[in-house]
Amino acid sequence: MAPTVHGFIADRHVKYWLRCAKTYLPSGYTSTDSNRMMLAFFIVSACDLLGILNTKFSEEERKSFVNWVYHCEVPKGGFRGFTGTDLGSQRTKAETEAWDPASVAATFMALLILLILGDDLTRLERKGGLQWLAKMQRTDGSFGDTLGENEQIEGGNDLRFCYCAAGIRLILRGDTNAHVENIPDIDVERLLTYIRSCQSFEGGFSQGPSREAHSGLTYCALACLSCLESIPASVLSGGNLQPLKAISYDNCVRWLASRQTPFMDEDDLNKQPTEWTGSILGQNTLIDDARLRAFLLGKVQHPIIGGFAKAPDELPGEKAILEVDPTLCTSRRARNHLKNISWRRENHAGMNEGQDVQSNNLKDTFSGDHYIVASGG
User: Fold this and answer.
1) Nearest to 318 by CA among 77, 100, 104, 46
2) 3-state secondary structure the chain
3) How many CB atoms lie within 10 A of CB 233?
């Protein structure tokens, strides 16, 4: 049975995200407090995509958001997932660093928040962040999430972390290598080899080699390739989808198109990753936008409190209405801001290592001590 389409209730979405940003989250989110940076990204990104960052938040609130993100940066580079692991002065001891680790996922989210808020990233510990990132790569080319005791790589090794790592590299290394030439890079070829090993016989990408394909992980794989600029131009232009060293793009597109079913029922949960992945490959015309819109507006949009859920009958999550960059999961405006940051485009003599320099355009950014996700602490 086809869902009832209610239309996009923008005012309720605005009210929902303002409530998330300025008050307390529903109790159902309590268990995710250690992933507060992720929740902060969803909230800030949603407000950006709804076009309310500069109209519903004061300059001081926006400054407070940026400062909160920087407060989560660990001294040697990278960002923690929330402030609960901050050991303060006790972190200076080598044996305690593993208890306050930087997270690959949280670091990617933190950088995206800063970009959305228009920060120029000059306060970042960029050199340390890039050195830490290189340590996060396993011998098979995949990435973990944190460094434990004795710098052991911990956390999963699926394509989600590979995507986050490639996104961090894209943001921190810039468009030239002049100012990072003495900083170790990740092994891009090993990462590409690992991504190739995750493509299943169906064409999609899986959690690891020889596993079942999944549309969300397929998005992560292709977004990772996009960050690494490893998707052939002929694919991006919608032309011949020739393989790239064993990556079969034509099989991937065929598999993605087959994910969309005739009816948007409760078991059909692979819509949004499929749409975004198709956008990365320039193949979004193969997706039935009308049915996808019907599913989003009629099944997972909450008609009372606003917001979108991952699936019917779940708590709302995030939804974009403005033009989106499918690779970084941000607005086009945030991606364009990244491209225009001066230190990423110019040949600087050295790295800025944690300098306390304010953004040049704070009127259009966020910063401060305000906690974006007010779930205590």
Assistant:
1) 46
2) CCCCCCCCCHHHHHHHHHHHHHCCCCHHHHHHHHHHHHHHHHHHHHHHHCCCHHHHCCHHHHHHHHHHHHHCECCCCCECCCHHHCCHHHHHCHHHHHHCCCEHHHHHHHHHHHHHCCCCCCCCEHHHHHHHHHHCECCCCCECCEECHHHCEECCCCHHHHHHHHHHHHHHHCCCCCCCCCCCCCCHHHHHHHHHHCECCCCCEECCCCCCECHHHHHHHHHHHHHCCCCCHHHHCCCCCCCECCECHHHHHHHHHHCCCCCCCCCCCCHHHHHHHHHHCCCHHHCCHHHHHHHHHHHHECCCCCCEECCCCCCEECCCCCCEECCCCEEHHHHHHHHHCHHHHCCCCCCCECCCCCCCCHHHCCCCCCCCCCCCC
3) 8
Q: Please count the CA atoms within 13 angstroms of the CA of 74 that sit on its side-chain side.
A: 31
How many CB atoms lie under 10 A from the CB of residue 118?
A: 23
Q: What is the pLDDT of residues 195-246, one digit of tens each?
A: 999 999 889 999 888 888 888 899 999 999 999 987 765 555 555 444 445 6
Q: Which residues pair with 137 in a beta bridge?
A: 143
pTM of the model as a whole: 0.79
The three-point CA angle 174-237-340 to 5° equals: 25
Whose CA is closest to 257, among 203, 197, 320?
A: 203
Query: Do 83 and 71 form a contact (C-beta atoms < 8 A)?
Result: yes
* Residue from 105, 108, 165 nearest 134 by CA: 165
Please report, as a single letter, which amino acid is at residue 262.
P
Nearest to 323 by CA among 17, 46, 49, 11: 49
Given a contact cutoff of 8 angstroms between Cβ atoms, the answer to whether 349 and 46 are in contact is no
Beta bridge partners of 320: none
Tokens of 310: 């991952």
- What pLDDT, in 10s, does the model give residues 339-371? 898 887 764 444 444 444 333 333 333 333 333
Using the structure block, give the residue that is written with the tokens 């790589």: 153
Contacts of 177 (CB under 8 A, 6+ apart): none
Please state, in angstroms and rounded to a whole number, the distance separating the CA atoms of residues 348 and 359. Answer: 18
Beta strands 330-331 and 324-325 are antiparallel
Q: Give Cβ neighbours of residue 284 (< 8 Å, ≥ 6 apart).
A: 275, 278
